[in-house]
Amino acid sequence: MNDNLLIEDKLYQILKCEDRDIINPEVFGISPTWKNDKNFEYSNLLIIKDFQLFLKNLEVTSDRGFPEISGRNPVTIKLENNRETVLYEDIMYPVIFTGAVVIAAEILKTYDIQGELPCFSYNHVIELIFQDGKLVTTIDHSKAMVRIRKNLDLRLRSLEKKRDIRCIKRFIDTSFVGDYKHPGKKREKKLKKLNEYIVKLKEITNF
């Protein structure tokens, strides 16, 4: 996933999503020539405004045509090997997404777990819970990430040890509300868990 989220002029990278996509260009009739087309690429810039999730900008690389979206025509930013990369700006298309998302900002240290940059590399790590595109709640996990970094810096844990990596991953998985192990799969189970969480949250906050 190569999507970003803008919240109050602060840019966050979307690290995890319970689904494969928060929004896919196929919604607008933009799709790859064939399944698993490696030449088809896209990235979204999303924004939250008045608790509603919107698609602000969309960048797509394809060898097919591009329709008008929300009254906006795309601008070509690159043309190479019959593949065109275009940018749609200020679409402000409401995104109807239900699920959990993890966002992060400000890399403090480039830790490495099996070739991936883990979430505890970031200073700010926040989980967002959406229901039908509406932001229900946010959970700040930044302090939990501090705890992981502190254990690594004090050599109480090591990324060279598989047992410690498993322990860190387990801690992260249990800290998050969402289930990010299998994006796009077990959708009904995830929705049931999420709805139960939202019900409990409303009971506590009288929302």
Automatic annotation (TrEMBL):
It comes from the Bacteria. This is Uncharacterized protein. It comes from Anaerocolumna cellulosilytica.
